[in-house]
Amino acid sequence: METKTLLSAIEDELKKQVARLDEPHTQLYHEMLTYHMGWTDEGSGTKATGKRIRPLLVLLASAAVGGNWEKTLPAAAGIELIHNFSLLHDDIQDKSETRRGRPTAWTIWGVAQAINAGDGMFILANMAMGDLAETHPAETVLQGERIFQEACLNLTRGQHLDIDYEKRTSIETGDYWKMISGKTATLIATSMELGALFGGADADLRFAYRNFGHYLGLAFQVQDDILGIWGNEAVTGKSAASDLLEGKKSLPVLFGIEKDGNFAQRWTQSNITEADVPELAAMLEREGARQKAQEAADQMTDLALNSLRQADPKGEAGDELFALAKLLLIREA
Amino acid sequence: METKTLLSAIEDELKKQVARLDEPHTQLYHEMLTYHMGWTDEGSGTKATGKRIRPLLVLLASAAVGGNWEKTLPAAAGIELIHNFSLLHDDIQDKSETRRGRPTAWTIWGVAQAINAGDGMFILANMAMGDLAETHPAETVLQGERIFQEACLNLTRGQHLDIDYEKRTSIETGDYWKMISGKTATLIATSMELGALFGGADADLRFAYRNFGHYLGLAFQVQDDILGIWGNEAVTGKSAASDLLEGKKSLPVLFGIEKDGNFAQRWTQSNITEADVPELAAMLEREGARQKAQEAADQMTDLALNSLRQADPKGEAGDELFALAKLLLIREA
User: Fold this and answer.
1) pLDDT digits over A186-225, tens only?
2) Contact A185, A155 (CB under 8 A)
């Protein structure tokens, strides 16, 4: 079971699901979705599709509990479509003009159509989940759908907090964990849980997989925050320290604000320019924020790997899960 | 079974469903939804909630096929939540500043939060549908969910066309029917079909109910288009002829454009002011557009009532359905 095989099956399933909109009268609507998914128009290809990590986790979890990954494909597609629904709306909400190196949908087709395209992606995700009824008992499908919808609701809770925090001058680290639990960790946790459920795992085992996904998501986000300030542009593909320039309230920044030292003083004056960034990053590091964030990331990483060991994933898929976890968690700075 | 009893049960069920977001950390998120539903803040009350026609149709259909309407309440709530999800996003897409006499959500909380509130409403609608598993077999629930999701997709197809048509100078009446089938008729057709399904009707009977809803929706929309130009402000609650001022491509206008006479000439010059409206409306009437639209409305009304007779709804609920159909279709001009 090679990763390449899984990724190719995921892409086929996604295309099948999105083709529900491929009709003579809604060609343009369909095109918005295939563009965003990275399949059509200028710049399409693997760089534009994203890594499909979440659906890969669904399939690996289902295989690692002894299930048939092919029968779990609609759940994998459902998760990836939800992820892309949230990106479509997120880009509008954040006024982001590029995504994966290409213009975002709203910059091409306008805000009204991009909202609608996101809504369509969301509905297709739900329809994909319904397709699981072809290979699983109706009760299991309904159980999976409930887990899936709870995840969607958590995603919007996280999004609500994220938008709300942008306006607030002070937020605490407790707020931060709630926000990233919703925005980042929920969908990864649910990927693992749904994979385990449709692979045939019992409640205890599903819980272990879910926990792994939850902590993996948290660790990944904190690591991403660290790279957003001290990362190597060549590794992350985005400008290092751009988070400071954008005024993003990431975990190191919140630690710096809590510390109430030189960084906090400069940060609250705002008007941060590119020239200020190296000194601000250095201040944060001197005041211990980088170390504290790294400790948090390490702690979440330990919790993730402990949960995965507890889940005791089997076979090749199990090895792949450990490998993938390490790849995601131990990224080069 | 009084309508008042049904409406009160619908409101309770809706509040129960929306309360899923009533948590300490997302109070503001919850408030956006309760505000839009018409329950909280300035101007709340029956005027702000809307008429709840769609959920009422769900319950009446379920009772009219001999089912227990109380067990169908989650489907009624699901339909009404989808309707309100579409209004939340529609108001952003159309840049509408008021809805039911109150400021729209995006004008109060901003576009980003209002998009998210609509997304939340959508998820709550799906969760409401899942609640039907408490009182119905899992297979029936999955069948109902598929019908529900097809309706959602049709709604976004209609919305896509509506936004697209605003930019186009020429659209044909065929485009119009496709657009209102999605935007208006789908949800009413689905209200009837879901009511019949969860009331225990077989496929033929469900089809008759669905047809009734479909033609009811089309007839209602065409009637609304006519009132939008020649309606009495006191009856409709909105300024008569405002559709002409807004440049809305309603059915009479499309007939006028097809005719390619004086109206079409003036219409394509645009820059229509309030002073031009009476003459434009008179032109349209002279060129036969009002009569053609009325004939279309009458034809759809006949088809709706024929379908309802074919469905042969039973008991008090059946009488209510006929009464409601007549109330909706034969509105004073």
Assistant:
1) 999 999 999 999 999 999 999 999 999 999 999 999 999 9
2) no
Task: Find the helix packing angle between B3-18 and B53-64, rounded to 10°.
Answer: 120
Residue with tokens 């089938």: B181
Burial of B271 (0-12, 13-18, 19+ CB in 10 A): exposed
Q: Does a structural domain hold residue A258? A: yes
Provide the CATH number for the domain around residue A234: 1.10.600.10
Q: A156 in contact with B at a CB cutoff of 8 Å?
A: yes
Strand pairing category for B98-99 and B102-103: antiparallel
B83-102 confidence digits (pLDDT tens): 999 999 999 999 999 999 99
Number of domains chain B is built from: 2
Interstrand relation of A98-99 and B98-99 (parallel, antiparallel or unpaired) = unpaired
B19 touches chain A (CB under 8 A): no
Interchain pair A153, B92: CB under 8 A = no
Put simply, the answer to whether A122 touches B119 (Cβ < 8 Å) is yes
Domain ranges, residue B2: 1-201
Distance CA B284, CA B256 (A): 6
Q: Are residues B231 and B316 in the same domain?
A: yes
Residues B52 and B173 in one domain: yes
In sequence order, which residues have a C-beta less than 8 Å from that of residue B8 and are 6 or more positions away?
none
Q: Taking CB atoms and an 8 Å cutoff, what residues of chain A touch B28?
A: 160, 164
CB A107 within 8 A of CB A126: no
One domain for residues B246 and B314: yes
Structure tokens at B81: 């939540």
CA A127, CA A20: separation in Å to the nearest integer?
10
- pTM score: 0.95
* A-to-B residue pairs, Cβ atoms closer than 8 angstroms: 134
Q: Which chain B residue lies closest to A29 (C-alpha atoms)? A: B160
